[in-house]
Amino acid sequence: MLLIADSGSTKCDWMLLQENEEARSFSTMGFNPYFHNEAVISNAIRQNTEMVSFAPQVTALFLYSAGCSSKDLKLVVERALRSVFPNADIYVDHDLVGAAFATWDENPAITGILGTGSNSCYFDGDIVKQANSGLGLGYILGDEGSGSYYGKILLRSYLSNNLPDEIYSILYNEHKLPKRCHRGECVYEASCKCLFGFFYENPLR
Predict the structure, then answer these.
(1) Which end of the chain has fewer CB within 10 Å, C or N?
(2) How distant, in Å, are the alpha carbons of 32, 60, 190 from that of 196?
(3) E strands of the chain, at which residues?
(4) Are residues 116 and 54 in the same domain?
(5) Whether residues 88 and 117 fall in one domain
(6) Residue-averaged pLDDT of the chain
(7) Residue ranges making up the domain that contains 7
C-alpha cells in the first residue's frame, strides 16, 4: 500500500493507493519542521483516525513538505512519520520537489508554489534547482503573492485602523482578531489561522 502526501504550512493532502482499489484521500493540518516538532507532527497525523487505521498496511510513504530543505529538518518529519507508519519505507523531501515531479511533462520547466508561502524552481527531469533571484526567502523577507504576504498587509492595516468598516467588522466579529496587539501575541499566535479563514471565505478578486 502506497501513501503520498503534499504538505504546506497550513494543510496536508494525503492519497492512499492500493492495487485494484479506488484511491482514498485524506487531509490533516500542514506541518513545517521549522515550526513543528516531531511530537506535534505525529499527533496531528493521528487525529485522522480513518487514515491511521491503514497505517500497518502502508509499505511505502512519500511526503513532500514545506520546510524540508535540509537533512536535519527532513529527519524531524521522517521520525514523526515512522512513529505512525512503522512498516513503511519513508521518503521525505521539499514541497518544491513534489511540485516539480507532479508537473513534469518530459520538458524542462519552471514550477511554482503559491499557498501559505510561495516558491519556485527549475526542473530538467534530473535535478530540481531552486530559484536564487530573491525568491524562496521565507515569509519574513519573501513569499511574494502568498497568503502570508497578503496576510501581513491585511493585519497591519487592521491594527492601524486603515481598513474599510465592512472588512474590519468581519475580522473582529467573525474571526475574533483583537482590537489591539499586546506584545505581538496576535501576530504570532491567533492571527495566522483567522487570516487563512478570511482569505478562504473572501478570495481576492
Answers:
(1) C
(2) 16, 32, 11
(3) 2-7, 11-17, 24-29, 60-65, 89-94, 109-114, 118-123, 128-130
(4) no
(5) no
(6) 82
(7) 2-94
